[in-house]
Every structure is written in structure tokens, then in C-alpha cells.
Amino acid sequence: MDTSLSHQNSLIVVPLGTTFLHAPLISHELTVLLESALAKKEKTLLLYNRRGFGRAWICQDCGYYPLCPNCDIALAYHTSPQKQLICHHCSHTTALFLDCPSCGGQRFQSVGLGIQEIESHISRLFPRASLLRVDSDKDEKKQTITNAIEHHDIILATYASLGLIHSGIHYIVSLLFESELTLPDYRMEEELYHTLEYLKKSGTPLMIQTYTPEHPLLTLLLEGNYKDFLTRMSSEREKFDYPPYTQFALLRIHDERREKVEDMVARIVNKIETIKTPDIFIAYDKELHEKYRGEWSQKIILKGKNLDVLIRELEVEILRNRSVTLEWR
Fold this sequence. Notes:
Layout (H helix, E strand, L loop, with lengths): L10 E5 L5 E3 L2 E2 H12 L4 E5 L7 E4 L16 E3 L5 E3 L6 E3 L12 E4 L3 H11 L5 E4 L7 H8 L4 E5 L12 E4 L3 H4 L6 H14 L4 E5 L5 H8 L2 H14 L7 E9 L2 H18 L5 E4 L5 E3 L2 E10 L2 H7 L1 H5 L4 E5 L1
Parallel strand pairs: 1-13, 4-11, 4-12, 10-11, 12-13
Antiparallel strand pairs: 2-3, 5-9, 6-7, 7-8, 14-17, 14-18, 15-17, 16-17
């Protein structure tokens, strides 16, 4: 495989399972690219996912990672209270396994480094390069970030920050293709495909690192086969009862106090369980607590044909409570 990245060869895929790694997610191909870019004084944008809780259990031989049988999203690797795989939608659990059901290999690895850890590895390997990290933990204004980019060689950013970066980039690297797929959101495949397709069409050379080089989404991206992509997504949505084949609502409960969030989640879930019809699916992850800008949050997921009737029954808990946000999908 030709792994030289240029405007003539504007998209390459680096299989992390078979290449040499100088540090976690820092492939030999990436170091060669960064060395060349730094020598030519060209800027490189490194993309990594926006959250650290999406730790996937991935086979390094074939790229297999287990999916939830109920929700079709990647199961997350947990070590507490015991080592197991958990769905961050419905809390489905599976015992941890070491033998790959796809290839029989035993080289599983928990993948999901935090972006600050990636920053540390880059700084150690390239001490003379000026490195800028842009992510949701930082609250700079767009103009401030734009000005800062002009004075840095390497920009490490989350996908959520991509809209802030619009010029002066010579190379783009997706550090781990799976890092977005393992987030607990059924729309992640579609969002990732559209993001990478947009980057591909921008003309900026794009490198994608992955443990799953044969992933159907990557194949469709390389082929530019948008029609087959839509067919695949439509089939999966119908199979797992996602919109437009059913109604989908997300209740996000948020507050500065974690105890209040947990109490409100318990009360709302209890009420839903007493009034919902059997065809309505409810899920929430007891273990997953996010904290963003000083607030703790949890979410309750609802799927069904007539959710609007149920939501009306929850009017007091939703519409009159500033700590509850309703999102229809």
C-alpha cells in the first residue's frame, strides 16, 4: 500500500493493526508525514474524538468490535465494578472475552485515549514543533483560535471543533476512525461518513488511521459510493427501529449537582414505566455521567410509534423544568 500523502494521492488508509506504532495511535506513517510537513513548514490537523468515555474493545488482528444487539452501537469497555462490555444506550452487558469471534485471534485492546494523552505523545515525539490543542474543554472564541492556528505547526482538535478550523491546513489526519463510531449515538456512522466525505472533497490530503481498514463505511468512502451508503444506513435504521421508521426522543437531565440529576432520572424513569405502552422502548445508562461546563448530565432514550402521547403525559417533568431538555430525532 502506498502511504505517501500528497495532493496527487489525497486519501490513504493506515491499518494500525499491522503498522509500527511509535506511541498509541502514532503510526510510523504519521510520523513520516509530520516530519515532512514540519520540514516544509506546512500545517497538519490531527482529529480525534470529542469524549474519552467511548472505549471500544477492538481486535487488533481483524478490527472486530462487539455491537449491542439491541441498539447497534459499539459496546464500551468498563473495568469497574468488574471488567465487562456495556451499551451506553440500554445498559446491556456482556462478559469480557479474549477470543475474537470473527478471526479467533487473542489480541484485543481497549481503545479510547483522551485527547490530552495524545497531546502528550505528540509533544514528546516532536519537541520542537509548536502544538495547539483545540477541544471542548477550551472556551476560546473562534477568532482567537483562528489567530492561534497561524502560529502553530500541528493542530490537535476534536471533530466538534472542526468548524473553527477553515484555512491554512495542508494535511488532515483522522487519528482513529473508530473513535467516533464507538460513541453512544446511533447517528455516528452517518455523521462520520459525511465529515470524512466533506474533508475528502475539500482537496486537502487526508490520512485515516484505523484498526478496521475493511469497515464498510471506509470502503464506501474510498469508492465514493453514496447511493450504497444511503441504502446501508436506511436498512440499519429500519432493523433497529430508528427514525424515520419510528419516533425517537432523548431526555437530557442536567444540573450542577450530580445527586439531583440521579434523583430526577429515577423519578422520570419510574413515571415512564407506569404510563408507557408495551411497544415503547426506554433506555438509560446508570453508569454514564457526563460533565460539561460545570453541569452533570444523564440521558433517557425513548423509541416508539406514538411517543407524542407519552411526552404529553410528562409535560410537568419536561416543559416546566429547566433541568430537563427534550430533543426529538
